[in-house]
Amino acid sequence: MTPARADTRAATRAEAARLVARFEAAGARAVDCAILQPADTLLDLYGEDIRARAYTTQDPLRGERMLRPDFTVPVVEMHMAEGAEPARYTYAGEVFRRQEDDPDRASEYIQAGYEVFDGADPAAAEAEVFALFAEALAPLGLRAATGDIGLLTAAVQGLRTTERRKAALLRHIWRPRRFRELLDRFAGRRPVPAARLALLNDPDPIAHAGPRLGLRSEAEIMGRVAALREDAAAPPIAAEEVEGLDALLGVRDAAPRALDRLRGIAGEMPAIAPAVDRLAARLEALAARGVEVDRLDFEASYGRTSMEYYDGFVFGFYAEGRDLPPVASGGRYDALTRQLGRGAAIPAVGGVIRPGLTLALGGAA
Amino acid sequence: MTVKLAVPSKGRMMAQCAEWFAERGVTLSRTGAEREYSGAVDGVEGVDLVLLSAGEIPRELAAGRVHLGVTGADLVRETLARWETRVEALAGLGFGRADLVIAVPDAWVDVDTLDDLDMAAADFRAAHGHRLRIATKYHRLVREFLRARGVADYRLVDSQGATEGTVRNLTAEAIADITSSGETLRANHLKILSDGLVLESEATLYRSRAAPLAPADARAMAALLETLGLG
């Protein structure tokens, strides 16, 4: 290691320590987590894609392990095992990310984080995290982006269509292309594939199939055939409803104007009204914390591609005009706690800052 | 130094490789005893033959330890991230043709496309409490393919051979494997998804982008490529 690089590493650690001290002053308890994490938990949560992003290693006694790709999962697990609410945690340390496509992206870097488990006032907890980050990052002149995955989730849940279609759409909220394909199909905008038509028109399709192999039973196969038949008989999602979703996803404006637009859309789409109310409450809480909400960007489709576990408020801080990853990011992740807690969810919101980047940009406050 | 040309050390692929070069006036031959992994290149000066396992040739090319190598496109793309930046494909050799495909049991009458596979995977996970397993040795290629197409709720399980048997043996629900005629798949009651073609592969001659060439080697390389009609 060159002396210059060693200096940078030491300076990054010092920057991370300053951020942790700042978060402790805000009421967080400093915690640490193991670098080697059980692979099963992460695979179960993120699916096979995590293998493209995390380093996997084999332990002859403990099985497959992963070098922690983030702190959120171990912090949630620690909190669920022993924590009492409300709780605030802070941490700093290396995370490890495989970079298969871009050799210029770091495969090992330090994150400093702040996580709040406090269900008393969700809007206040979200504003607390965002305002804390905005203050720490204020000297860097970053652009903040915000969004809310809960709006789209609520809009999908409110569609006048079958539960199965809604579940399929909800499952792919975080894969916009696939979401769009499914929506087009359910809206009757795509032709039904020939093989599907043949299956639907075949009174006894299993009769001339090959022998049944493997774990997937005949009941499961025929169950899905029945579901496909039901789906073919169900009316398509109405064009107005698809337009409503498009209007919602197209909202991108300064937060107060975005809120107005969303209130307008909620007139046609009452299912999103509670989510719009939550956004309004959040903006009030942000303003109360001194955030200039008139100048805050809000983008309804923000956070759909890379933040699979966020399911409500999402935010990121970006160095405009620099080819850098987000300097900070975070959001609400109640769904993650539900998955990890096997049904027992905890309201949770938090985020991480990359001290290596804040330092390169001049240093956080 | 000499220019190092790596070719697969075993089986049909080596024989076909020798044939392809011979048709272009370059003779590849083993030297020494039959089981010895050394060889000679006749017809051009300054080129050495290196006999390697086809699976190791991508790595040797990327490391710059050989200048030229013949191996399957599937192996290069699976083994080397950002393969185009590390090797250059000079010519498809017209043999070793095989498709990497996703296949499921024939009995899955409800599954014909990746879209079906994705939906079936969601139901499978709900019913069995674990993700639908796809057996393969092409982890990177298959993962990238399925990610780009939005398939979720699956898990890859490693299978280095007899992959078609994993479904019957209950170690996987579906497979992603190389097939040339599809016969082994059919014999094992598996069908290829209609949009399940991950990659069309053939034996390909690659040039390393990392191997250093002294001036004399550069001349030998140019002469070889000229002779092969690739200059």
Automatic annotation (TrEMBL), chain A:
Q: Name one GO biological process term.
A: histidyl-tRNA aminoacylation
* Coiled coil ranges: none
Under InterPro entries, the record lists:
aa-tRNA-synth_II/BPL/LPL (IPR045864), HisRS-like_core (IPR041715), HisRS/HisZ (IPR004516)
Q: Which Gene Ontology cellular-component terms appear in the entry?
A: cytoplasm
Q: Which residues bind L-histidine?
A: 70-72, 97, 111, 115, 304, 309-310
The record ties this protein, via Gene3D superfamilies, to: Bira Bifunctional Protein, Domain 2
Q: Which residues form the Class II Histidinyl-tRNA synthetase (HisRS)-like catalytic core domain?
A: 13-175, 226-350
A molecular function (GO) term: histidine-tRNA ligase activity
Q: Which domain of life is it from?
A: Bacteria
Keywords (A to Z) from UniProt: Glycosyltransferase, Transferase
Q: What is this protein called?
A: ATP phosphoribosyltransferase regulatory subunit
| Native species | Rhodosalinus sediminis
**Lineage of the organism:** Bacteria, Pseudomonadati, Pseudomonadota, Alphaproteobacteria, Rhodobacterales
TrEMBL record, chain B:
Q: Which enzyme type, at the first EC level? A: transferase
Q: Which key words are in the record?
A: Amino-acid biosynthesis, Glycosyltransferase, Histidine biosynthesis, Transferase
Q: Does the keyword Glycosyltransferase apply?
A: yes
A cellular-component GO term for this protein: cytoplasm
GO terms for biological process, alphabetical? L-histidine biosynthetic process
Q: Which part of the chain is the ATP phosphoribosyltransferase catalytic domain?
A: 54-214
Enzyme Commission no: 2.4.2.17
Q: Which GO terms describe its molecular function?
A: ATP phosphoribosyltransferase activity
| Domain of life of the native organism | Bacteria
Pathway field: Amino-acid biosynthesis; L-histidine biosynthesis; L-histidine from 5-phospho-alpha-D-ribose 1-diphosphate: step 1/9
Q: What does the UniProt record say this protein does? A: Catalyzes the condensation of ATP and 5-phosphoribose 1-diphosphate to form N'-(5'-phosphoribosyl)-ATP (PR-ATP). Has a crucial role in the pathway because the rate of histidine biosynthesis seems to be controlled primarily by regulation of HisG enzymatic activity.
Name recorded for this polypeptide: ATP phosphoribosyltransferase
* Source organism per UniProt: Rhodosalinus sediminis
